[in-house]
User: Fold these one by one.
Assistant:
Number 1:
Amino acid sequence: MYKYEVFKIHSLSSRSYGILAKEKIGRSWITVAVTAPFSNDYGTAHQLAESCSARQLSPPHLVDVVSDFIS
């Protein structure tokens, strides 16, 4: 089982959001993939993360999905 979560990076002048892919192993959620921050809008990143979770996207495809999303 996979879940996708938004993470935030702060700089002095802005915030950027990316996505973590986590896999449930036993009772723990282990981060198995991460994107570079790709959006300044939390809602946009959250919407994509929710969609990836609902569809149980395989983590190796996360970068391709984000690339398609932003192009």
Number 2:
Amino acid sequence: MQNDLPLRGKTVLLTGTSKTTAIVDDIAALGGHAVIAPLIETCERMDNDDAKLLNSALQFDWIIFTSQNAVDAFANKMERYQLSAENFQSKIASIGTKTTTALENLGFQVSFMPSIFSADIFVKEFPSIAGDHPSCLFIRGEKAKSTLKDGLPFNLKEWTVYETVERQDQTTAIINCIHHNEDVTVIFASPSAVDVYAKSVAVHVGWQATRVAAIGHITEAALEQYGATVDIMPSVYTMQAVIEELMKVGDKS
């Protein structure tokens, strides 16, 4: 029976935005207990120039999305100003399966995804297929790093369409969960969530109280900067891949 329920006895803390809740049923089906405790949330950034910026977006050779949050905010603007994917002649570049799925659900066809879902790999692989002196627009969040702008060998325009807000309302619940459960894994999907956890949770319980899982080597690096040991970091940067790795590990002593 244990083999049928490889997550039996394990508690999995999900610290990303509320969009990460899709994995909850999978965790439960494997015998685990998922706790949704978002340490960050995102919201669309509204601007008086949105209509003009959206119209300008129609003119680019490439539009680049690196997160599902960016797609969702962009979709809100498209709906508000009555545009659809059919209005865009641009090629679409995407990082991540969730991002790509969200784009495809809007009717976009994704022309490029990097072999590893990370911005620093994107800047190495994208130029070879982007064409000669392409005009590129990066649809970003306010906390996006300058990796694309600094790393691409051609001019990149940026449009910030969403903001990331820290949530402190979940920290007490997280601390209590860690204190009352023996085998806890905390999954981090972004450096932003790591920052909140480090400031509001780790200072009370330490990093050794749980198993630590990271999605992406950028998130892994953020954890290590705070002194955490990353126990799980799959080569495929998805939540599902983390769960698959967690299924292989024994109980946390």
Number 3:
Amino acid sequence: MNRFLFFCLCLTPLYFYTPIPSSAQPVITYWDKESTLKQTEENFKNGIQHGRFAQWYKNGQLAKEGNYDIGTEKGVWNAWYEDGKLKSEEQYISGRKTGRAMYYYQNGNSALTGYYKQNLQDSIWLGWFENEKKKSVENFKVVESRNNWISLKEGVFQYYFSNGNTESEGFFKNDKLEGKFSKYFDNGKMQFQGEYKNGQRIGKWKYWYQEKYDEFSKSGKEERQYLSDDDYLVLNFWLKNGTQSVKDGNGPYTFSDVSGVKLREGTLKDGRESGEWTLWNHEGWKEHVLIFANGKKEGKCTNYFKSGKVKSEGVYSNNKKNGYWKFYLEDGKLEMEGTLQDDLQSGKWIYWHAKNGGKEAEGFYNNDKQDSLWKYWYEQGMMWKNGNYKEGKKNGWWEFYHKNGKRVEAGKFLNDKQDSLWTSWHENGQVKDEGAFKKGLMDGKWAGWHDNGSKNYEGIYADSVKTGEWQYFFKNGKLYQKGVYKNGKQEGYWLYHFNTGILESAGNFVNGERDGKWTFYYETGGKYMEEGHKYGKIAGDMKTWYKDGKIQSEGYYAISRPNEKAEWVSLKHGDWIFYDQKGNVIRKDTYKSGVKQ
């Protein structure tokens, strides 16, 4: 029956960066550019807040005011609404709320008052509605626990409706309900009453209808005997017309929520559910029909969608799902089916595709974990993958298939990670990749082939990182590129070729970036361009040639960056000269840091 009553009525400040002086000179910020409307005023001592702090609304009204003592709040702090009415009064000692605090509604009426200790609610707290009617009475105590201060509810509490009638009342001991507890309807009539011990309901509890209240035996609703906080016997139950339908724990029983929506209906035997019961949700539609024995689910159970269609059906035993269960989609199609043992999936299970109702997966569970052989299918009915699980993890041989029935890849898993030799295939059945895994990471020599059977690549992996010499090939078998990887990045001299086998470019890499002189060639074999590189950018001399070998242009790139965190950029610098095919200069441009002069 706890109710959170603390109002977050303190103004949230707006923060702007302002240099903090070391002197005691006030620092003022303004709402406007003209510096006529103050926003904040702060004082500092040796760079630490000290002295008066004030904050204003844009309309010039003071919003918050208090004092700092060497960086911590001290004394009385007040806050106001934008219209100037008092919003809160709080007291601080060494930055912690201490002593009496008062909070107000904007109409001036009290909202909440009480005491703080170590920044926590302590002693008695009183709350009111905006219409001045009492809202709450609560008691707290602040104690030290594990080197921290905590606030516990302690003593009498009362909560009220806005019409002034009591909503609930009771007693807390060490933050747990203790002793007699009463809950009322908003018309002042008793709703239910009972006793708590150490936060748990115990003994007999009585419930009443809202419409009438007299002697319980004549106009009560229900009487329960609590064995624990979540386990009780229904002793007696009366209908609204006064007829007793359950006597000494036996008879038909209907339970509704406070708004009158029926939630449960069935028969009680010795205070517990027995036989067939129907359960509805708070929207009023039927959710479950199930069998009880001695208060436990025992026998057939059917669960429903809001539409009335079956959602799932199966059997309970000893209050848990046991036996064969079926689960459906809202359109009536079967979603999955299999055996449950004490609410855990066990034995064979089958899953069905939602779109066409075809089989999606089939396999076994052991203690709610996938186990042994599992098979999976595409919607069209072709095999997708199959393999073994152990304790919910892939273990052993697995195969994956294209939709045309040919394999995609195959190999072993160890504890859900690929292990040992794996092979993959193109859709035409030609081998695509082959190599080993170790604990889910590529390891050792790997090779790949194009779909025509010619080699695609070959190289070495270490922990799924490329290392050592790698070669890549075109589909016609010609070498495409060749070089060395170090820690997954290109390193040293690399060669690139056209698919005719003629050299396309060559140069060095350092840590995955081009470095030093690189040479590029025409597809006919002649040199096309030379350029320098540094940090992966073009740097130094650059030359280009016509196909007949005569020079076409020459120039220079400088690299720079504005600061150490910025990227390097290439900029044309100095003279750039362009030639015709006879060797004559046709243009000369001069650049300075990338800008044409």
